[in-house]
Design brief:
Helices cover 38% and strands 15% of the residues. It contains seven helices and seven strands, in the order E-H-E-E-H-E-H-E-H-H-E-H-H-E. The longest helix has 26 residues, at 100-125.
Amino acid sequence: MANVTYQKDILKDKVAVVTGGTSNGGLGTATAFHLAELGAKVYTLGLKADETTIPNVLDVEAIEMDVTDEEKIEKFFSDLTQLDILFNGAGVNMPDQYKYDTYKKVMDINANSAFHISNLARPLLAKSDIASIINVSSMYAIFGSDMAPAYSASKGAIGQITKSLAIEYADEGIRVNAVAPGWIDTPLMDSLPEGQAETIIERTPMKRLGKPEEVGQAVAFFCTPAASFVTGAILPIDGAYSLF
């Protein structure tokens, strides 16, 4: 992926943690790779980490991690000695979300883990000169979904977690923002019913799907001095889909 946004090595000597970053072709992986292209050492956490394809030229280490495994995630952060960037990208959208067990699982992965991990990262981030947390919201935080009440609720919660932590962490120089992706061309699109992708594109004013690297570039913006006075923001990356 070509670096078209920032100069080479703007994140040199910085350390980033990306959760949900082990799925090939996914948003987390694209974000991990883009931060590494800008010079960061990146730890990308997620399931099936041994299947993650990482270019040899990038300083990215994939680590097997269930973000709801509190003991394991706490051990990981206790062993870290430096952290400058946290991207809370772990998330799921499951069937049968009107079942309470499913609802709880989606909330735990999408929202509760982001809150927990942000607090674990706080002491190390407070030592960084570019400390930045980026969460992942969604269009569904705006207009909801009858098919995905848990997912929609979790992403609505992410918005309030982002704003609340932005206020709480400000005195320590930690900025907290979120991206709200729309329809992005990831492997998840393959599960859509036939013809739905075309309907989505027709409704989207920009008349195309987003690219995973476009989310990664927006995340990079929040991590650099270009966003030094930006905190508590939620940035839609959806080609204006959510405006309708």
